[in-house]
Here is the input.
Amino acid sequence: MATEESRASSGRDAREAAAARAGIAVRPDEFQHRDGAAGKEKVFELKGVDVRYGGVAAVKGISMDIHRKDVTALIGPSGCGKSTLLRCLNRMNDLIPNAEVRGGLLYHGEDLYGPAVDPVQVRKLIGMVFQKPNPFPKSIYDNVAFGPRILGRKDDLDQTVEEALREAALWDEVKDRLDDNAFGLSGGQQQRLCIARCIAVQPDTILMDEPCSALDPISTGKIEDLMIELKREFSIVIVTHNMQQAARVSDRTAFLMVELDADEDNRWGRLVEYDETERIFTNPSDKRTEDYVSGKVG
Amino acid sequence: MSAVETRVHYQEELERLEASALGGLDLVSAALERTMEAVEHTDVELAQLVIADDDRIDGRYLEVHQSLITLLATQSPVATDLRLISALLHVLKNVERMGDQCVNVCKLLPLSGNEPPADREMVSRILTMGKQTKTLISQAKRAFEERDVAMARDLVRQDDVVDNLNRECFGLALEIGDDADRREWAMTMLLAARAIERIGDNAVDIGEQVAFVVTGLFREFEDASHPSS
Here is the structure.
């Protein structure tokens, strides 16, 4: 049986190989650059990022560092651009016609939007879990094996599937019915299956877009526990409407809000405050953050 | 963005609980005034009234404490609201302790005898302590209501006056003479002075909570175990 350490290191090798194919250099741990202030390695560095859809700004001037093996929460009212921002981080916006990302967006120090970068490879390294569980209409096993098969990994597929399901805290619930259709699972189980499918290709970062908003409190609790387990190995960025969820699971929280121009014709999202979660929820610096997290302004 | 005010009922409830907790300080102030009157006239019956009335202060403590816990459980307060609730829980405890100190003084009065061999100098200092402590209590309340950290800090200076008077009482007790009755009376009155001095300390503690609500940082204004002077 693979030890924890050898698994982690083989996972890293695979990630580095994938990164190399994508034209992104993931540096070995010992050479990782560190953020002096936070003492944490950066996964993403955003420098004045603007996103436009058909020339209209959706978010403007976002600058923030996202740290490795942290859970980073993006919160803010509807339309503040937090999902837009999340989708920039694995180039999902490329799939939307007329979407345009400007400004600096570095992933492990490399330009994520550089000409040599293959967005398909990017999405292997930076996985995504969506609001509504979206398993494929296939067996539980085939859902998890889907990514590794596409990547041409034939050997040890059983082991890969088992490890991913174990990491997603789903193995014990499904080990006796791996051939059953995934649609037979509960919503919470389906969402954990999607997380298993995501980690089966050994990503470096997992993006979650309101992963619990369709789930009941017990399933939500399981996913939240899982996030805390997963951050030992992965960096996680989560968009959530549930402020208590951000408070419970995240290390750092970014608050975005909607800004209007003078004649209120255009609106876009901007980053108001980004800090340690504890600080955001006990003593935020900005009055607007205070009003939002206290639920005083909708 | 047009700001829509939400959670109006929660906000009103929090304001009501703050007023109710700080209203506890008015109850303490009234109890202290009657306690001082009882001390001045060795009025044991008035002292009994103060002791009986302490149930009102304890009742206020229990009622507001329970409502704050409910607010924590049901409303998930954060940021300033969370700091305010945390501070109010502290203030309630201070209010309850201040009430108990008034009771302590009142319980001492029967021990000093019906016609005690009172030393006028010492009684007058204790009465001045009472007056000064009442000022501290109302200043603590106002500083909290107005979130005025400077006013809260000033409580330390005001409290020094009470502390000095307490020390003077101690000096007077030392020199009270050889008469056993007089010595017993002086010892009892020293305990009373000490209880009033503690009320002043509680007022300073409330001031520290004001600073916490405003700044998010808790710092003791004065650290008894590491005095600055």
Chain A touches chain B at residues 77, 243-244, 247, 257-260, 267, 281-284, 289-291, 293-298 (CB under 8 Å). Chain A has eleven helices and eleven strands. The first helix of chain A runs from residue 4 to 21.
